[in-house]
Design goal:
The chain is 35% helix and 20% strand. It is an alpha/beta fold and 284 residues long.
Length: 284
């Protein structure tokens, strides 16, 4: 596995890739878990080593963190990440030496309007501007044929899809289902920061989403009824939002008449966790 530490070196590597070989790309902020590994495995499945290259990036992007958010506390384990990358068959891992390499100036930004107005976009101003800017930079450097993202942050995936289409970026965006712990909690690098009690309490998130799914399967379509009792159910968590949005527009809906997403963001022990359930009504 080749480790690249500067954008210039990554650009040179990309120019040297034999024409016709495909590139699969998985961008991450590191502290890899089984959810990330599932993305790498999908990348390797789509682009076998005989046909192309699997590229991983590890970069804790400072511009998607607000001034009071957990940039310094974000977990890091580069040696562990590189071991997982090798075990997953990664060909190239891009680990910028410093944030300044990715931001030679902070004069140019990519901002997707509309889709970023709700959910995490409402409570984390500027977050998705940072996400889109770094993904666009990485996309231009790697020039992937396919890039793979998890669906745990459904809003982020929708925004990246919109940016990809609007900027005529090459390749394909692929979303992968959430990978969960044995008790149902969505895998997240931030789970490491949970105390034992907070980790226990946080299981209220998947249990609540399971309840929403059960209500939906039983025929409930009303927003009010689907999300009923959410704040009480999620105690002692501090709720950022519990919402029901259209899967395409991310606009809040009053009832599920086409694919929708029940999305939550809750803090347990000061650690902000997100999760969602996709609700798809059967065609009539």
């Amino acid at each position: 596995m080749r480790i690249i530490t500067s954008p210039d070196e990554l650009r040179r590597w990309r120019q040297e890739v034999t024409p016709g070989r495909r590139i699969a790309f998985v961008p991450t902020m590191g502290f890899l878990h089984e959810g990330h590994v599932s993305l790498l495995n999908e990348g390797r499945r789509r682009v076998p080593q005989s046909d192309g290259e699997l590229v991983l990036s590890i970069f804790v992007n400072p511009t998607q963190f607000g001034p009071t958010e957990d940039l310094a506390a974000y977990p890091r384990d580069l040696n562990g990440d590189l071991a997982k990358a090798r075990a997953s068959g990664v060909d190239v891992t891009f680990v910028p030496d410093t944030p300044e390499l990715m931001y030679p100036s902070r004069a140019t930004w990519v901002d997707v309007e509309g889709l970023s107005s709700w959910l995490c976009g409402a409570s984390r101003p500027g977050h998705f501007r940072g996400v889109c800017t770094i993904v666009a930079k990485l996309w231009n450097l790697v020039q992937p044929h396919v890039a793979i993202f998890g669906e745990k942050d459904f809003q982020q995936l929708a925004i990246i899809r919109r940016m990809h289409a609007d900027l005529f970026l090459s390749g394909e965006v692929v979303g992968m289902a959430i990978v969960r712990e044995a008790d149902g909690l969505a895998m997240s690098s931030r789970n490491k920061n949970l105390s034992p009690q907070a980790r226990h309490d946080a299981n209220a998130i998947p249990r609540f989403l399971d309840l929403v799914r059960q209500r939906f399967v039983a025929g409930t379509r009303s927003r009010t009824e689907l999300l009923a009792g959410s704040h009480e159910f999620l105690v002692p968590g501090v709720v950022d939002y519990v919402d029901l949005v259209d899967a395409a527009t991310l606009q809040p809906v009053v009832a599920v008449v086409r694919p929708a997403v029940a999305a939550v963001a809750v803090r347990f022990g000061g650690v902000r966790l997100i999760d969602n359930a996709i609700l798809v009504p059967e065609a009539e």
